[in-house]
Amino acid sequence: MSAFRARITAFFTAFVFLTAALPAYAERLPDFLAKIQPSEIFPGADRYGKPEGKPMVARVYKGDEQLGLVYITTDAVNTRGYSSKPIDTLMALANDGTIAGAKLVDHHEPIMLIGIPQSRVDKFIDKYIGLNFIKNPPTPGVAPGDIISGATVTLMVVNDSIQRSYKVIANQYRLGSDKALQTASASDVREAAPASETRPRRMANPDKQDILSWDELLKQKAVGHLHITLDQINKLFEKGGKAGVADHAEQGDPDDTFIDLYVALVSQPSIGKSLLGKDGWAHLQKRLKPGQQAVLVAGEGRYSWKGSGYVRGGIFDRIEMIQGENSFRFTDAQHERVVELSAADAPRFKEVSWFTIPEGVAFDGAEPWRL
């Protein structure tokens, strides 16, 4: 796979649904602070304050001067790597929001344990030091350093967890303001919260079981859709500013389809029965445990959303589910191939599958999510 395609997932992270917040709050920070001197992560610091707050942080000091704070990304957002286990990065943020330090402190990624030198990963993470996402917000999914070939998924997860956890911490502790490091009050949090956090809780309607056509499903937005042409994908990469992108541009008619991607929550009866048919729906029900959800992904075009990584490693490394501050990838154990969709007038797709949401993952199908 070309370097151009290795980075393509960065541009799909905004698909499909805007998201609600579901904080992680794992509180693993104290375990790591005991092993790392303050000056190792925050230049000039000589002591940590007591870990506190949700998400948990520790203030850092030089003498009596408060320099900023440190936190673990997985205490703020729930992200999992290729191994389906957390990747912990210790972050140091100055009062104004500048990243003063970043250090990978724990992971279980096979490629980084046996193939990629730690020094190369450290060099990738060092690119974040000195950046200020308050003054210069990052492009979602785009890392400041080049992704290392062979560790694409892992480093994209690291980038995603740094970007999203930064936003959570900066908002919660008011970095960049004259009230920096003051935890926002409940009223302030409510004032700043998106509508999805303050409105009444949504509930899926299991009684809605109408059989709908493909066009009706699209019209009701029961099926999410993303279409990207060769021209659009080439321009997206040009905007990313990476050196050498033009050398790897997709060739062909600019209007040709790069990917035509669809997703749907097929554990909802009306959607599932419409797309899978009677027998397909019955088969899905046998796989689902009480309360478990499932999503369907279908695609066509030059780019394969499945890829081939799952054949070798069992992980579908080109797609990621995100809801709030939680994210996860699917494995072959949750995968079921679909030959064709049953909805009237549904097109035939080169790749169609449904996935059960992994057990132990907090996922609410009635709340916004994205792929």
Automatic annotation (TrEMBL):
Domain FMN-binding: 81-169
UniProt entry tagged with the keyword Cell membrane: yes
Region forming the signal peptide: none
Sequence intervals crossing the membrane: none
GO molecular function: FMN binding
PANTHER family assigned: ELECTRON TRANSPORT PROTEIN, ELECTRON TRANSPORT PROTEIN YCCM-RELATED
Protein name per Swiss-Prot or TrEMBL: FMN-binding protein
